[in-house]
Amino acid sequence: MTTVKKPKDFEFDYSSFKLDLIRMSPEKFMNLPAFFRNRDVESRISKMVKRLKNGPLPTHLIVAVGKSTKDIYDSHGVLKYKKGQYFRLDGHTRTDAWKVKPELIPNVDLIVLVYEIDTYEYSMKVYNDIDSSESAETSNEKVTGLLREREYMAKSLRIKQGKFKTAVNNAARYLKADDGSCLCDKKYNYRFDVKLDFFWKELTNIDKIGFDNIERYSGNVLTSLLLIAKKYGSTSRQFKTLVENYTEGTTTINNSSSVDGVHYVYNNLYPQHKDVWTQTGFSNSFGIISKILYCFDMFMKNEPISKRSNFPKDKVLKQLYINFIK
After folding, report:
1. Would the pTM of this model clear 0.70, i.e. be above it?
2. CATH number, domain 19-149
């Protein structure tokens, strides 16, 4: 690599980076493991097939791989790559498209930029920079990368598509990590993957129960379910009944004086807040989550909601949300 001389006070030093340019057959490249955080979006494959069918371009031949200079472990101590191992940093969608349509595989070697990588954190920085500049990965797609990293095969379409980030963020909004810091406090630099770890058991158990068929679904409902699951246990029979009843619109109590919490959310709160039910801005979500959470909490405690008594005031409900898990 040629080093360009800069003034002594030049702030950015690129001279320590180790990278190389090599040629590699498409077949060998395709057999390399994908980057562990790579997103999983099937719709991109068909789009890429169409692009490749439009005719070969030189850009189709340029890819990037990482080469680990030492064993690389993630923050949980899981070995991701052994020393000397190569792995794909981009070209994932092209690889999937070539596997679907082998006739589109280039008949010449690929031009491969090899990055030498020595830590998990550095691999994420390089991957994110390549991806953000070349593929415009969306927020949902980044979340699916977290699922792939955990080798989790989701059952519910909403989880598969990564449509749960806001729900997890709102569920973690008032919670504290093991060190006592707030999960949403930027000064502690808590990332979404930390919040996801905190709610991983609850989210995956909700996914296994299944909630794709919930007619009156919203991210605010999922936020409430995550908090309820964290407090009461996501494998309890009562929690499973809650999810199933809300999915099916089933009522267990509805008499002259009271209804159950699921009934109240489904038949009272939803019609009252239908216009903003699926809005994700927290100014709208705060009050709705508080009300849903109260109703679901009453259901878990087997306590009906009175038709005659006034529903708790917003201030009380919001405080319930804030202090729900301590």
Report:
1. no
2. 3.90.1530
